[in-house]
């Protein structure tokens, strides 16, 4: 918006091209009016129709149905053609792949794997990446976690290989065939908002526990990123290059292999990079279904509330993530070395691999100092942490949970429908309302509302902290530079690691899950808010400053309103990450749907309830995602 005097706004904002935009004070007042109307209607309806909260059924129709599915699968696993020639062969093929990758990595030995990793990084990404790879792999042995790190790397590489083999062709098809892209889009949306816990029970039902189920669960989590980024890269190839090749008589296959794929190479490498990051983040979660590797160390540490041991394993995963990220990122920005360089380097690595060199390196563990620090904090901060837990629970969590659990499902469905119509569009409103009705149909209304209350409280805290920190980073370049490595490490740290300090500080409770969720979700929110504020056109900022706006007025009257798209995207991502983490919090006393899911894949008699809870979590994710995404689209459209 164009500021004419300090603290006053007239007219509309100018966009990056210097043209007046349509999103000014009137747009803001309209948005506030819609929200105010929604709040008033909701309060009146809730006060008028509140009921007594009743416990969920222990024998709902959905539970019986899913238990029946489990019994059918168990009875037909070795006789039905679907399993004999389908599921069982997939499981066998994945196991053979994992065994082959694992045998290849372990067969190289410590020195050989370090040398090969460094040589490959040097060839494809340069000497800095090669040095980083060598240092990172040596660090696994220094931490005393070499075997576990190799197991985690084998699972990750297996899942990434399958994701690339499946995802790249699908991404190309989605970019080149319109109906394929349209058909894949809603499927990918659901897959990306699925909390990782939600599909552990189905994976164990079909593929049993172990590496195959872990790799396939990781694949489901990671392959949407492969498909989306590949589609983006292929669609972004310059039309002039395609036209020039077509004019010279190139066939469709030649256009693909000779023009589109080579020109999209940086984006395709980025797709591999992001797939690796997503796959690695599943390393701990899949440990719950008996996947080997560093995740097992973290699960054991969580059971013993051993923050130090979890820190060592979490640090190893962060190091692995940083190495893989830096190597693939550098590879996307440069061409690999020629064969004249590659052959000698790889040959030298092969020689090292053949030498009988052991892994006799100095050992060091952070477990003792981290546990000492945790003990000191527990002792000296007890009063503060108890006050914080009780205050947030009494002021925010308990009243919200009571309101949601005493609201009839039909009324909540109507309110969600109205909210969707006011804030988003009719399509988003219908999907969100149908999700609410689906949750009730699963027979888990009370637990779903308890989970939703926890998610909403955690999201509010996440946005407050994330917006504040993001604005500070956007305004202070030096602070942004200092916080960037912290945010990188926080985003690569496995989600389970955040449970340990939360449990140590606050004990096993719902608030523990909220704290862990906030820590887990704040980094991406900070990045998105910072990006949104920095993307405000410099001409608009300069105009506001020249008109006499104070820094506070500049922020509240110009930067935040014009960065609304980035803020809404940050809220959407924050909600999705909070939901995933709150469900994980079922392991540390958060209860509700998270506990149901954990019980479902750990206790046979609770399988039906656990699978129903997984679907309920998915529906909650769809509900929150559709409302925030729809609001984002509606506000974006109002500015065009």
Helix content bin:
over 70%
String of helices and strands = EEHHHHHHHHHHHHHHHHHHHHHHHHHHHH
**Largest beta-sheet details:** 2 strands, antiparallel
Number of helices: 28
Q: What is the number of E strands?
A: 2
Q: Please compute the radius of gyration using only Cα atoms.
A: 26 Å
List the helices and strands and how they pair.
Elements (H helix, E strand, L loop, with lengths): L1 E4 L2 E3 L14 H25 L11 H16 L4 H27 L1 H17 L1 H16 L3 H31 L1 H16 L6 H8 L3 H25 L3 H9 L4 H12 L1 H17 L12 H11 L2 H27 L5 H16 L12 H14 L1 H24 L3 H15 L2 H16 L3 H31 L1 H16 L6 H8 L3 H25 L3 H9 L4 H12 L1 H21 L7 H11 L4 H32 L2
Helix pairs in contact: 1-18, 2-28, 3-6, 3-9, 4-5, 4-15, 5-14, 6-7, 6-9, 6-12, 7-9, 8-9, 9-12, 12-14, 13-14, 14-16, 17-20, 18-19, 19-28, 20-21, 20-23, 20-26, 21-23, 22-23, 23-26, 24-25, 26-28, 27-28
